[in-house]
Amino acid sequence: MGKKKVLKQTESDLMQETKSIEDAVAKSSGSVVRKNAIVRKGQAFIDATYNNTRITITDENGNVLAWSSAGSLGFKGAKKSTPYAAAKVAETVIEKIKKTGLQDLIVYVKGIGQGRESAARGLANFGLNIVSIADITPVPHNGCKAKKPRRI
Question: Residue 16 and which of 36, 96, 103, 122 are 20 to 30 A apart at CA?
Answer without folding.
Answer: 36
